[in-house]
Design brief:
The protein is α+β, with helices and mostly antiparallel strands. It is 35% helix and 34% strand. The N and C termini lie far apart (95 Å).
């Protein structure tokens, strides 16, 4: 009887230990909700650009972000990105820009996402200067609970004028 009691006690202690052992505490990430949150940040970004609100705009960009523009030097870090935005806004005070999200994918960890979309830019709004259009990819990282852009690249999909095309 003692052997059975001892065996039962060992089993009971094992069960209690298993119940007390930490379970997989990986939080379940609602990827759809996170994708919607990223898309909302993209729309805030567009609203801040349209309003020419540099402070609000830069609050959506990580300190260590890297932005790539075709034909221009890479902007590394928030200070360089901020200076580039100020310069562009000064050179093109009447510009208009719009973009729309095509897709957002969120990593299963819930802390990294990438957005793909299309954009249109006119350097002088209703003026005579010719505009441009293309596609972009923006990568976001969740920092202190908020989605922030960490990398951005866009390219023009506008056909080159025939005189510029070399055979």
């Amino acid at each position: 009887m003692k052997a059975t009691s001892r065996s039962a006690a060992v089993v009971l202690v094992g069960l209690l230990a298993a119940c007390a052992a930490p379970q997989d505490q990986t939080p379940v990430v609602d990827l759809e909700a996170e994708a919607q949150a990223v898309e909302a940040v993209s729309q805030q970004w567009l609203e801040h650009v349209t309003a020419r609100d540099l402070e609000a705009l830069t609050s959506l960009i990580a300190d260590d972000a890297v932005f790539f523009d075709v034909g221009e030097p890479t902007k590394e870090g928030l200070a360089a990105i901020r200076a580039d935005v100020e310069s562009n806004w000064g050179e093109n005070p009447d510009f208009t820009v719009t973009w729309s999200t095509t897709s957002v994918d969120v990593a299963s960890s819930g802390d990294l996402a990438w957005e793909r979309g299309s954009w249109e830019f006119d350097p002088d709004g209703a003026g005579e200067a010719e505009g441009d259009y293309g596609e972009y990819v923006t990568v976001y990282r969740k920092i202190d609970g908020a989605w922030k852009a960490v990398a951005d690249i866009g390219h023009s999909t506008k056909p080159e004028p025939e005189e510029m095309i070399k055979e």
